[in-house]
Amino acid sequence: MLSMIHIEAQKQKGTINFGIPSLILRVYFASALPHFLKNNPHIYIQVTEGGGKEIRQKMVDGDLNLSILIEPTSLDAKKYEQHIIQLDEYVAYMDKDHPLAQKSLLEWSDIAGYELATFNKTFTTYDLVTEKLRSQRIEAKFAYLSSTWDFLVESTHQTDLIALLPRPVEYFVDKSRFKAVRFKDPIPFNIWFCRPYKNSYNEVESYVYEELLKDYYQPFSDN
Questions:
Q1: Average pLDDT of 151-157?
Q2: What's the distance, Cα to Cα, between the start and end of the chain in Å?
Q3: Which element (helix H / strand E) includes 191?
Q4: How far apart are CA 25 and CA 31, in angstroms?
Q5: I want to staple 94 with a disulfide (CB 3.0 to 4.6 A). Which of 23, 98, 177, 185 is the partner?
Q6: How far is residue 127's CA from residue 63's CA, in Å, rounded to a whole number?
Q7: 94 close to 163: Cβ distance less than 8 angstroms
Q8: Of residues 32 and 167, which shows the higher confidence score?
Q9: Cα distances (Å, whole numbers) of residue 139 to 98, 109, 135, 168
């Protein structure tokens, strides 16, 4: 049946609008998505990048067929099909000589006296970080907010600044200059694959969704 769907999908030149936060696109889809498109030349995927809240709003507005969102998705479970595809967490990035760099695990109280950096307010990360700090009764002292993780990590170089960012950023960090330290009680960085419920989907929509879900439905926790 899947091979038949694949053949039918190849006959249709369909465009799929897919919203993905920039970091997730780079970490999880940078190589796999071009490979998928190479194997399915009649399918065109229009990728929309942005912060999690931007992507969610475009999904709600009906501009996207598929989206990747960070937990919580804040989508109506009756209107949207949602599957978790990755489990991870937020960590603290800092200069290798930072006073906290040698700790194996951080308490949130450890960072209370330091200036912080994280993604800007269009990102779900900002809401998650500020809510966590509030719950720990820590005043959020942000020196920098940005849409680019590399700037945020670089801003910690030779300073006591701490950048609170998703753990997968560590894949791209120069470990000779920076250290990523986990929290004992981390903020989850869980990734969800979402689409709106419809009475029926065309063959291209169904094929793309099922294939990508099959490829990425591999929840893990790097503990």
A1: 97
A2: 38
A3: strand 191-196
A4: 9
A5: 98
A6: 23
A7: yes
A8: 167
A9: 20, 11, 10, 26
Listed range (15-19, 166-170, 178-182, 200-204) with the worst mean pLDDT: 200-204
Tokens of 223: 């503990």
Q: Pick from 54, 215, 187: which is nearest to 129 by CA? A: 187
Buried b vs exposed e over 82-94: b needs ≥16 C-beta within 10 Å?
A: eeebbbbbbbbbb
Tell whether the model's pLDDT for residue 138 goes beyond 70.
Answer: yes
pTM tops 0.90, yes or no: no
* pLDDT band, very low/low/confident/very high, at 46 (cuts 50, 70, 90): very high
Where helices occur in the chain by DSSP H, the ranges are 2-11, 22-24, 32-39, 52-60, 124-135, 149-154, 203-216
Q: Are 112 and 138 in contact (CB under 8 A)?
A: yes
Q: Are 135 and 187 in contact (CB under 8 A)?
A: no
